[in-house]
């Protein structure tokens, strides 16, 4: 029974008392642990060198000759399992790591190197390995001497890593082993381990191979993308995104990049590049709009900044701009252009009508925005014009696509005088809403007339207390009341 | 300090104790005086495990928040970083360590405690920056399930839902499974596991696997929980989107409760300060802890807000009457008795004052026109009215540039209540949102689509009415004062998730097979064998205990509904609630939004 195993069991037995402890090295001196860790990391470096060596001796890229494969093969034959046991004994001492090469797979693999017949068997054994990896029960007996550190299966390795133990991944050398390791990690759902394995793969696999394998492993792919985003490896990320352009979300994450570009010109260029990406038809049109909008904003901004500094335009002198229009939403841009460029001809980029046409802004949205902008400037004539339509006989008529109660609210928020306000309150169709608004905003005329039309004596009398004593309004109420009596 | 944890059916103090013990053990490893440098996010959850006094007993003399630059002067032997395993935090730590004056003597030792666990990635990162060797102890503190109240556990893992559904990262599920293993180690193996949804399936699988891999986990503790119900948030996307109408739910909706604490605008609490003489009006927000340790709060928190006022006024009368007693106290004995009750009465009075103030604050909002309009639209959607066309109120809100999250909550609610929106309606909303709030929000809209909250109706069939009717999700005759059904928590809408729990207990899920199939993900049942000696022989009339684990978050209203079921006289089941995170619609949508600004670090 190995130490690790004993510890796991000990953990669960004792977990009543120490429920959160997952470290098996509690009892050791911290210094020892530290030195062990240092040595372990040293081994990583040594192993790295091995890797290079072995790249050269492997058989035409086939995983047959891989170290892990050969170790598994040896371990299942009785002689070498004895060897394994011996070495595990050696390894039992804490200094084992100081002799990394002594029992390393390196020597075992070179053992095979010279023996030709093994290559043929090796081909068969390959599929065998696969089975064993996917059905680990078959390898149960081996679990007996787990201490032999290079002997952990991908599954065991993942388990150990999940428990936060230091594991060298370098012994997974063949592509297949690496992929099994990755799949095991993904099956364990532990992002920490998945990322660790991915870093290892990223370091040891050629990009094309890594990308190709990730294409069919979406979960792992997401983890890698997330990792690259976090570590800011932009170039690698973009390469990855370019190669895996099959998924919509990935194109969006490329589009997302524009947010990190501060320079507007560069940002515009970048957005232009995004238009070509295979988005859904609808997203493409939004991104096209985004690009067009920024392009517009750059032109407007340059122009207006010039106008403002020149100091010749009255509107800019009177209402200096609070912020630049760059990167603002479309509706904000429309408000801006209704505010500063309302009267411009449709041909100019900054005119509201041009914006409306280019971006197919719905009437409702346009009227709301224009109304808010003109009301803010207290340009009541413009407000009036917004709602005036002429029919073919030349009669004018008031019409609003948003309902006049909304118009009233917006005007009121912009402190419109009662005279202006009541004109629109009067246009509210629903009688109850009209009365409410009239009362709320003190448009006495409208309220009084409405009650008169309703012939509602009681309400009208009650309304008297809302108007000033001795005012024209009070007189008006009195005269109506008298009239009503006479009728 | 933690009496409220033992008040429930399951004594959660044991879990807290286990957490404290581990913390003490770690602190004692770093011998000598210490300073802790905190990842600010962790201070809240840690506060639920231990107070400063515990740390002080173990020679923690100073505490700082983690920020870049030189570490503050502190004459201590050890500097310990308590951090989440995040790369941006590692950068700050690196900066701290590199700026440490190497010439100073005595030198300070560095340690790092990862919460909830060590990350190979972070250690690799530190190694690359060349500072990994500076840390003597690098350990992990598995703060998986934190006891919040006598019947409530949370992992406080903010982004669990996002990670599972947007990033295909199921690490939080792994932690959930681990938390459940810890819980079983303390409270016995849970014999029955039910679940609904993909994430639920994953967690159950992991638990079973973990159990198999550690044969030693067969413990000999008599099981406290009879049943575990794993519910994937994905199964019920509707509930968090609706505005919660319980007292606690509204506090959370309006002010946000963080780790049982809420920060409130100080104006309403200013009066009491007068006694302190000449102090200015407080400008700092008033911070209050909210849990069942406060008697009054325990009584009112799960009530519909409309029923809170009457309780408060009744309490006020009782307390004034109690204070009046002093006039009747004649004998020394009577006076003595009165005085002995005084502290309790004063506590009750200040508690009453606080909650009256909070209720006033909330009432200001719930009586506003906009709150009413918003609620009306929500209730129309949930009862199935006009879910298939563009809603005027939503359009108006967009035109007036109401907060984007509010808009998204409503649009998503409409989408969920219609099994997806008609393409034309969806396109219209999207266009309006992008034009008004900025095109970059296409990223957020895409996230919501990916999470299933906002989607086109693909099947051409709206399943929601069937689900609503079968599960009785909409109740017209709701009684807010004396509820007889869980639907009181949303004044009409019965949370789907809790209905599933209710129907599981009685008459069982077999009765709703058809509807279960309409909801996403598999539903399943697993049994964990118990040794014969540990099998429960139920006393007659003894309630079963069910642990309901919400994977992806739970709202206070859902918790209230489950507490209501626990208290039902003939209910037969008591519930303990666990979750990855306590959420409300706003915090949930926020977690799904694309972060448009860079992180503050």
UniProtKB/TrEMBL annotation, chain A:
GO terms for biological process: intracellular protein transport; vacuolar transport. The keyword Plastid does not apply. GO terms for cellular component: early endosome; late endosome. Its main location: cytoplasm. It is found in: Cytoplasmic vesicle; Early endosome; Late endosome. Keywords: Cytoplasmic vesicle, Endosome. Residues 41-60 are annotated as: Disordered. PANTHER family: DEFECTIVE SPERMATOGENESIS PROTEIN 39, SPERMATOGENESIS-DEFECTIVE PROTEIN 39 HOMOLOG. This is Spermatogenesis-defective protein 39 homolog. It comes from Corythaixoides concolor (Grey go-away-bird). The lineage of its organism: Eukaryota, Metazoa, Chordata, Craniata, Vertebrata.
TrEMBL record, chain B:
GO terms for biological process: protein transport; vesicle-mediated transport. GO terms for cellular component: autophagosome; clathrin-coated vesicle; early endosome; late endosome membrane; lysosomal membrane. Pfam families: Sec1. It is found in: Cytoplasmic vesicle, Autophagosome; Cytoplasmic vesicle, Clathrin-coated vesicle; Early endosome; Late endosome membrane. It comes from the Eukaryota. The keyword Ribonucleoprotein does not apply. It is a peripheral membrane protein. Keywords: Cytoplasmic vesicle, Endosome, Lysosome, Membrane, Protein transport, Transport. Belongs to the STXBP/unc-18/SEC1 family. Plays a role in vesicle-mediated protein trafficking to lysosomal compartments including the endocytic membrane transport and autophagic pathways. Believed to act as a core component of the putative HOPS and CORVET endosomal tethering complexes which are proposed to be involved in the Rab5-to-Rab7 endosome conversion probably implicating MON1A/B, and via binding SNAREs and SNARE complexes to mediate tethering and docking events during SNARE-mediated membrane fusion. This is Vacuolar protein sorting-associated protein 33A.
């Amino acid at each position: 029974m190995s130490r690790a195993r004993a510890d796991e069991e000990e953990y669960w037995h004792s977990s009543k008392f120490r429920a959160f402890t997952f470290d098996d090295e509690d009892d050791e001196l911290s210094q020892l642990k530290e030195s062990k860790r240092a040595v372990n990391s040293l081994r990583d470096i040594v192993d790295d060198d091995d890797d290079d060596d072995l790249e050269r001796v492997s058989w035409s890229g086939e995983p047959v000759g891989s170290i892990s494969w050969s170790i598994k093969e040896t371990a299942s034959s009785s002689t070498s399992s004895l060897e394994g046991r011996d070495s595990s004994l050696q390894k039992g001492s804490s200094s084992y790591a100081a002799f990394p090469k002594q029992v390393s797979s390196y020597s075992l693999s070179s053992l095979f190197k010279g023996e030709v017949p093994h290559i043929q068997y090796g081909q068969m054994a390959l599929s065998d390995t696969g089975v064993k990896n996917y059905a680990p029960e078959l390898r149960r007996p081996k679990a007996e001497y787990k201490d032999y550190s290079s002997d952990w299966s991908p599954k065991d390795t993942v388990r150990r890593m999940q428990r936060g133990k230091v594991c060298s991944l370098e012994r997974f050398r063949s592509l297949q082993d690496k992929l099994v390791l990755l799949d095991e990690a993904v099956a364990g759902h532990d992002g920490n381990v998945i990322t660790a394995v991915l870093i290892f793969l990223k370091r040891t696999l050629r990009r094309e191979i890594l990308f190709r394998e990730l294409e069919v492993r979406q979960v792992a792919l997401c983890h890698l993308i997330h990792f690259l985003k976090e570590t800011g490896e932009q170039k690698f990320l973009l390469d990855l995104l370019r190669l895996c352009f099959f998924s919509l979300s990935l194109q969006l994450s490329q589009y997302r990049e524009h947010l990190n570009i501060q320079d507007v010109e560069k940002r515009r260029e970048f957005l232009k590049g995004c238009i070509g990406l295979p988005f859904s038809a609808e997203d493409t049109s939004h991104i096209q709009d985004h690009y067009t909008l920024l392009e517009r904003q750059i032109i407007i901004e340059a122009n207006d900044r010039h106008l403002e500094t020149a100091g010749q335009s009255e509107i800019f002198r009177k209402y200096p701009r609070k912020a630049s229009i760059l990167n603002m939403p479309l509706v904000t841009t429309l408000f801006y252009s209704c505010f500063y460029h309302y009267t411009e001809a449709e041909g100019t980029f900054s005119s509201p009508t041009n914006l409306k046409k280019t971006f197919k802004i719905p009437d409702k949205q346009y009227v709301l925005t224009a109304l808010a902008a003109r009301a803010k400037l207290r340009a009541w004539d413009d407000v009036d014009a917004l709602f005036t339509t002429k029919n073919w006989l030349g009669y004018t008529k008031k019409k609003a696509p948003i309902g006049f109660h909304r118009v009233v609210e917006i005007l009121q928020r912009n402190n419109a005088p009662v005279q202006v306000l009541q004109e629109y309150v009067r246009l509210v169709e629903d009688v109850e809403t009209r009365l409410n608004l009239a009362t709320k905003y003190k448009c006495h005329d409208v309220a009084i007339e409405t009650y008169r039309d309703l012939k509602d004596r009681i309400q009208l009398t009650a309304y008297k207390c809302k108007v000033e004593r001795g005012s024209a309004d009070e007189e008006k109420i009195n005269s109506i009341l008298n009239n009503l009596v006479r009728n | 300090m933690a009496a409220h944890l033992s008040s429930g059916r399951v004594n959660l103090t044991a879990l807290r104790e286990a957490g404290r013990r581990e913390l003490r053990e770690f602190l004692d490893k770093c011998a000598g005086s210490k300073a802790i440098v905190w990842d600010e996010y962790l201070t809240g959850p840690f506060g639920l495990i231990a107070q400063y006094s515990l740390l002080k007993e173990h020679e923690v003399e100073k505490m700082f928040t983690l920020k870049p630059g030189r570490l503050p002067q502190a004459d201590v032997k050890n500097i310990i970083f308590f951090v989440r395993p995040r790369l941006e935090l590692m950068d700050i730590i690196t900066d701290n360590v590199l700026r440490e004056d190497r010439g100073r003597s005595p030198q300070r030792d560095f340690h790092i405690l990862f919460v909830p666990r060590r990350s190979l990635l972070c250690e690799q990162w530190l190694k690359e920056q060349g500072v990994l060797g500076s840390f003597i102890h690098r350990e992990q503190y598995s703060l998986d399930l934190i006891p919040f109240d006598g019947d409530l556990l949370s992992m406080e893992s903010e982004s669990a839902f996002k990670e599972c559904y947007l990033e295909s990262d199921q690490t939080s599920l792994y932690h959930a499974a681990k938390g459940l293993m810890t819980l079983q180690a303390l409270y016995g193996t849970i014999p029955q596991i039910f679940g609904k949804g993909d994430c639920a399936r994953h967690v159950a699988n992991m638990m079973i696997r973990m159990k198999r891999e550690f044969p030693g986990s067969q413990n000999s503790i008599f099981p406290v929980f009879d049943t575990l119900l794993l519910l994937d948030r994905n199964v019920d996307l509707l509930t968090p989107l609706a505005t919660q109408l319980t007292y606690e739910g509204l506090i959370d909706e309006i002010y946000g409760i963080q780790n049982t604490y809420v920060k409130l605008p100080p104006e309403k609490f200013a009066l009491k300060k007068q006694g302190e003489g000449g102090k200015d009006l407080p400008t700092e927000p008033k911070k209050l802890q909210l849990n069942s340790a406060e008697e009054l709060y325990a009584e009112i928190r799960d009530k519909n807000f409309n029923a809170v006022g009457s309780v408060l006024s009744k309490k006020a009368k009782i307390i004034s009457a109690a204070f009046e007693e002093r006039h009747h106290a004649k004998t020394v004995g009577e006076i003595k008795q009165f005085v002995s009750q005084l502290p309790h009465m004063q506590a009750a009075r200040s508690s009453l004052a606080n909650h009256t103030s909070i209720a006033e604050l909330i009432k200001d909002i719930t009586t506003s026109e906009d709150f009413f309009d918003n609620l009306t639209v929500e209730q129309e959607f949930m009862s199935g009215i006009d879910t298939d066309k563009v809603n005027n109120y939503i359009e108006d809100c967009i035109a007036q540039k109401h907060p984007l999250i509010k808009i998204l909550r409503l649009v998503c609610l409409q989408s969920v209540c219609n099994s997806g929106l008609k393409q034309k309606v969806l396109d219209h909303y999207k266009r309006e949102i992008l034009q008004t709030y900025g095109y970059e929000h296409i990223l957020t809209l895409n996230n919501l689509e990916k999470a299933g909250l906002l989607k086109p109706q693909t099947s051409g069939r709206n399943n929601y009415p069937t689900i609503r009717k079968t599960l009785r999700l909409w109740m017209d005759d709701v009684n807010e004062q004396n509820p007889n059904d869980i639907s009181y928590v949303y004044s009409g809408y019965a949370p789907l998730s809790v209905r599933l729990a209710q129907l599981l207990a009685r008459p069982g899920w077999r009765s709703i097979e058809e509807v279960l199939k309409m909801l996403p993900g598999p539903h399943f049942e697993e049994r964990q064998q118990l040794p014969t000696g540990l099998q429960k022989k139920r006393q007659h009339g003894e309630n079963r205990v069910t642990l309901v684990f919400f994977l992806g978050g739970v709202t206070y209203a859902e918790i209230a509904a489950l507490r209501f079921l626990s208290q039902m006289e003939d209910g037969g089941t008591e519930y303990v609630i666990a979750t990855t995170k306590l959420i409300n619609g706003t915090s949930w949508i926020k977690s799904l939004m694309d972060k448009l600004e860079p992180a503050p670090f």
